[in-house]
Structures are given as structure tokens and as C-alpha cells.
Amino acid sequence: MIDAKGIEAVIPHRGNMRLVDEIREFSDTSAVGIKYVRDDEFWCAGHFPGKPIMPGVLQVEALAQTACFVAFNRMSPDQARDTLGYFTTMEKIKFSHMVHPGDKLELHVELLVTKMRLYKFHGIAMVAGKKVAEATFSAVLQPRDM
Asked: pLDDT at position 12, please?
């Protein structure tokens, strides 16, 4: 398992933009991450005040952050440290249930295709064994200094 400190060593997101709290497993083709949805999240105060739900776009971002562990696992540590991933497409996005503070969001991603620096993934987000979101997305990996 990789904790918050280990996650920060791999992806550049800090503070409230890091949407993955743990990586439970990862390989060259798949990963499982965890996001503990808390009531002090930055979006709780303004997104449906009094009845906060985790915005769907943040659920997809959490899937993408989990996918970084698949892509970067395929590189040397030096390459991974000097690389950033940028969304290129998001498609087939479906939201089926709301995610609330107190939920544990399980993030399952699988690598579908890779061509040079382009990676395509399929991700499913689940709460208590129930699918809450699903998306297919692509990202391009580029050196930080580009």
C-alpha cells in the first residue's frame, strides 16, 4: 500500500487537489486507489450547501490520479519524476449514484491502450461495492519542462 507521502512522490498534486489517499495495488496495467471523502473537503461548503455530494468531475480526476501509478510504473523513477500527465479525452462518462462525505471511494483503473506517450484507461469508481461512476479517458505524458 502507498500512503499520502508516497503518492506525493509520484504525482505533483498537493493539498486539496490530491484526490487519492491510498494506492492499494498497482501494476503495469491496473491500479486500485482509495479516496476517503471527508466533510471538510473544499467543495462541501459550496457544492449544494447543506447536502454536499462529491462533484462528478472530481471523481473522474481521482480515477485519473490513480491511473498515474500505472503509467509511471512503466517508466524509470527518474523519467516518472520528470513527467506530467494531461487529459486529452474523456468519454463514456456515467454517474449512477451520489458520493457523500463519509464514503470510501474505491478507484479501479485499467490500461486499455498505450502508444508512445498516449495512454488510454477505463476507470470505475465504487462505494460499498456499488458502482458510482465510470469513464474512459486518455492522457498524454510529457516532460515537465515542455
From this structure: 76
